[in-house]
Design brief:
Blueprint lengths: L1 E2 L30 E6 L2 E8 L2 E5 L15 E5 L3 E4 L5 H8 L18 H12 L6 E4 L3 H9 L51 E7 L8 E2 L10 E4 L15 E4 L8 E2 L3 E4 L1
Length: about 270
């Protein structure tokens, strides 16, 4: 995110963009193509995640895997724009008018958010987008597809935990463990930051077993009691931060290790 300069004044409601056409589906746009969207006096980046296929979950040979990661072939038929970082506190305050975080800094990701908070944010943001553009949490399949960015390893950068690539708890209960700013570690090949570590990320799905066989645009179980979180956090060991790792919490539960990122798409 960067400060805008010489920006036009807005009415305080409508976000300045090139209109809905700039965010429309396109098979010609390369993976990771980045464009910005002005919210208030700040430009925020979004990266294009194209339609495609991948294997969700992990092979039995992957170290630190859990039993709920059985491989499932997924086809996503539509592309989407992923917010390049976890949602920062400054943006959350701009849209919601409050900040629930325990570790407060504008460029830190918002945390201590419930799933209900995250979906309410998306609804409030949608009112300020061009007609036809919607904001939502990613599905679990969309999240993992974007995280992997075409890779098959345990992490987008390889198979081993790396403190130069992500913010995670190498030593349980270490005194210096905390969240970090949203662009402190390298982005994955499609331009997305903190897909491993820093904060768990809420996704749309209820938690449940993956479908058996190949699926198209999966959205998880129709009902459930807990919602899925992905990506691991600053106080987790490396295994919890893998591309395939899953966690779950009650929709109204909040914790300083959980935040979210959102995506944009055209209806």
């Amino acid at each position: 995110m960067t400060k805008r300069v010489n920006s036009k004044e807005t009415n305080g409601n409508q976000i300045e963009t090139g209109g809905a056409a700039a965010w429309a589906e396109s098979s010609k746009r390369p993976a990771g193509f980045r464009q910005t969207l002005a919210i208030g006096d700040v430009e925020y980046g979004f990266c294009w995640i194209p339609a495609g296929e991948f294997d969700m979950g992990s092979p039995e040979s992957e170290e630190m895997r859990d039993s709920d990661e059985a491989l499932c072939h997924v086809e996503l038929t539509r592309g989407f724009w992923a917010f390049e970082t976890l949602t920062p506190q400054a943006l959350y305050e701009e849209i919601m008018g409050n900040n629930p975080s325990e570790n407060r800094k504008d460029d830190f990701p918002v945390e201590t958010t419930t799933w209900d908070d995250a979906t309410s944010f998306c609804k409030a943001l949608a009112k300020r987008l061009p007609k036809g553009v919607k904001a939502t949490l990613p599905t679990e399949a969309q999240w993992e597809y974007a995280c992997r960015a075409g890779t098959r390893t345990a992490f987008w950068y390889g198979d081993s935990s790396d403190s130069d690539k992500m913010n995670y708890g190498k030593y349980r209960y270490a005194e210096d463990m905390s969240p970090n700013s949203v662009k402190e570690y390298p982005a994955n090949p499609w331009g997305l930051y903190d897909m491993h570590g820093n904060l768990w990320e809420w996704v749309l799905d209820w938690y449940g077993d993956y479908p058996k066989g190949a699926v198209v645009d999966p959205k998880g179980p129709d009902v459930g009691s807990v919602r899925v979180c992905r990506g691991g956090s600053w106080n987790n060991r490396g295994g919890a931060c893998r591309s395939a790792s899953r966690d779950w919490h009650a929709p109204n539960g909040k914790n300083q290790i959980i935040g979210f990122r959102f995506l944009l798409s055209c209806e």
